[in-house]
Amino acid sequence: PGLYHSSTKPRDAGTGVLKATLIIQKWYRGYKARLRARQQYALTIFRSIEYADEQSQMQLSSFFSYMLENYADMCKEDTELVHRFLASQQCIKDRQKYVEFISVPDSYSGPRLQFPLSAVDIDYLLKGFMHQEILHARFVIEMLFETKKVLQQMPNFTHIETSSFEDITICGDLHGNLNDLLVIFYKNGLPSESNSYVFNGDFVDRGKNSMEVLMLLFANFLVYPNKVHLNRGNHEDFMMNLRKTKLNSSSYLQVYGRRILEMLEEVYTWLPIGTIIDNEILVVHGGISESIDLDLLHRIERHKVKSVLIPPMEVNRDHTFELDESKSSVSTTISKKSTSEPLLKYEWEQVIDILWSDPKSKNGCYPNTCRGGGCYFGPDITTKILSKYQLKMLIRSHECKPEGYEICHDGKVVTIFSASNYYEEGSNRGAYIQMCSGMPPRFFQYQTTWATHLKPLRQRVNTMEINAFRMLKERIISRKTDLTHAFQLQDHKKSGKLSLGQWAFCMESVLGLNLPWRTLSLRLVNKDKDGNVDYMSSFQDIHIKKPVEEVQSTVIETLYRYRYDLEILFNIIDSDHSGLISREEFRDTWKLFSSHYNVPVDDYQVDELVNTMDLNKDGSIDFNEFLKAFYVVHKYDTLKQVCITNLIFV
């Protein structure tokens, strides 16, 4: 018995350790899977709201079309608004007019550039931006003029060839993330005669260093014009930049007004719309459609696509717009001069498809309802178009991917996205591609962080979830009146409760966000023991702050919901970029906007809001302050403040 006991005990102990190890492994795998699922839901919320915002912005094109088609009537009612809108589309030709009054003071310690640029100037820029120095506006404007001059000589599609001993690097969206660009240059080397790059659009917006990213890309392009290739993205669009982006609110524009933004408008239009590598690989920002015509796209005058929000207009050829800069007025006159032909709508739509489209697993080609522009194209469309033009692969960007890249359509479509931490820190990796002749693409991933170590997955997921649901609840509260009405129509018994299916149907039909509402309901509403939803709990712990208590909640919701669209309009009106607009401009623009969108808001209540926001009664409204007045108050904000207060007193 003693021998038996001593010989079996280690075997039993080993078995127990093995079982414990398997149990721990199984628990850990389940734990990590649940974290990944939560991360995926958060990313789905971020992406859905991002696309809904783009869709809303795209819909402004109908407003601008309406405004220009009816310009004759508007000239009588609001000459200033129409003048500023049209003036923003004028070509900038007088270089000296833009720089002659901007001198560089001796006290300026940032990078000083000498034109034509050399590799030494690139080094100055890199060192300056790494030390958070700001490039003086005179150098910025000079850079933009030089870049435009070179871009004007380029074709719509850049044709390049690789070899077995020379790679080409393809980068996707950077969105103003300077650190990501610096990491790419550190890992992959600076552009040079032996190190080629293609930057595939969306250099700006969202990140905090849009101008710095642009300046570095343009400087490298000017020094190595045959080795650095820049494709236009859907955010290289001056109307897209008019929202509260880091580019639009940068210190450059605060100091020097709209001069730089106006020059950017011109540079954007001259960016090539694609690159073709080895006559086999098509590189465009968004994608393709079933009607895409590459031969036509090679021939069109790309600089006439000013903005996705300004489609070609059918204008009476006997009339032109005359801009009187001294009086800021617009008049309609008979013109004897022939004007340049505008793009046909079909040509304009082709460019929009290139910039805005997304691949889907479903066959066919159908409207991109999420973004509001471009199309969804399936594997069959990819095969058809690549075969038609004897191509083998499409490389595109435009979509954030958790791993920085994604391969679909049987390996024929590659998405590359180079902005890491796009939604939140830890939300996604960035990536770039290296390609050489006859070899498959090689992917390189990275993730930038200010911290010494990346936070654990649990902390990153928690942060993502909190901010994703915060954004979602803000979207919900902005449609409270509409949602309540939809809930009550379904609540035939007037019980204040709906089935989960009914609640999800109302949320989707009103918000149009295409989200897994049944799963998300666990974080959004209260349910009884039978699983029925207390639908008014959808609005719990959150409300929109009211600048004027007497104003109806529907007015507040309407202004909050359209705040980004209104911001674009006010940035057009605010020609000197002062952040101030007159009370009259506010009223007139709101009337124009509300009449087109059929927004039922009482003018008297809008006037009350205007009076309240004009704090010093000088007749001008600080629109930035106006926007800040409508913010969403979360329960979590209150709790956080209480915790901070308690800590202070403890």
From TrEMBL:
Residues 565-596, 605-636 form the EF-hand domain. GO terms for biological process: detection of stimulus involved in sensory perception. SUPFAM superfamilies: EF-hand (SSF47473), Metallo-dependent phosphatases (SSF56300). Pfam families: EF-hand_7 (PF13499), IQ (PF00612), Metallophos (PF00149), PPP5 (PF08321). It is an enzyme of class 3 (hydrolase). Its cofactor is Mg(2+); Mn(2+). This is Serine/threonine-protein phosphatase with EF-hands. It comes from Prolemur simus (Greater bamboo lemur).
